[in-house]
Amino acid sequence: MGYPRGRRIFRTLILFVLSGSAIAGAVAGEVSLGVAANFTDTTRELAKRFETETGHTVSASYGSTGKLYAQIKNGAPFDVFMAADALRPALVEEEQAGVPGTRFTYARGKLALWSPTVAAFGNAEDYLARQPFSRLAIANPKTAPYGLAAQQVLEHLNHWEALQHKLVRGDSIAQTFQFVVSRNAQAGFVALSQIKAWHEDDGTLWHIPQAYYQPIDQQAILLQHGADKAAAKAWMDFLKSDTATTIIRNYGYDTAN
What pairing do the DSSP bridges indicate for beta strands 104-109 and 167-170? Predict the structure, then answer.
């Protein structure tokens, strides 16, 4: 005996929904990211939007660009490398760990001198010259592009050698920011994006002129580990979308488009 017409239609709809869910579950995947520490908060917001729009999931490891590059060379299973410079992604591509033609600049970073103390300094250049602080935080110039930019600023102002005994170096820009937030350093060179994500008092901020340091072009590259993963390719496309660039700009970066 056959189903009444209404019950047949209902059963067909249920089967359609279930099969659609099964297909979606089969298609959805996970992308593993190695992300420069300065981009932590931005990545978390991007990941939420990406997961909502695509159904894919995101896992991310954060650290200094130099250390992430070393991990990739040693076989870390990242699908995408999001560096805080252009040098390491270019090396990854040259060393055939990255997929040729996928490297692009997803953000241009901005360096700032910041103290959580309100009115910590007036003229920032005079503040650095007078050195009325016991500790000044920077990221390690050898592993963190923002640390290299900080060194370039101090060299531009002819203070690099004079300040050596007062510099405290973070392994990454994230650790450097923590030095300042915890007041283990009275001020520090940090990413502008970190200050924008900080929810406490604004403190004292100096927007450092771009002419004082080389552009911080942050590049991403699809790694060979993720070359055949739909989720990894979708993430790379998402980073170029209007949605992503709006989020990136809101966090204090410039973008190419």
Answer: unpaired
Fold of 30-108+216-251: D-Maltodextrin-Binding Protein; domain 2 (3.40.190)
Domain 30-108+216-251 shares a fold with domain 110-212: yes
Query: Is 138 labeled as ligand-binding?
Result: no
Q: What is the pLDDT of residue 202?
A: 77
Does 42 appear as a known binding residue? no
**Measured distance CA(55)–CA(110) in Å, rounded:** 32
> In the CATH scheme, what is the homologous superfamily, with its name and number, of domain 110-212?
Periplasmic binding protein-like II (3.40.190.10)
* 17 has pLDDT over 70: no
Q: Which residues, 6 or more positions from 13, have their beta carbon under 8 angstroms from its beta carbon?
A: none
> Is the confidence at residue 12, as pLDDT, over 60?
no
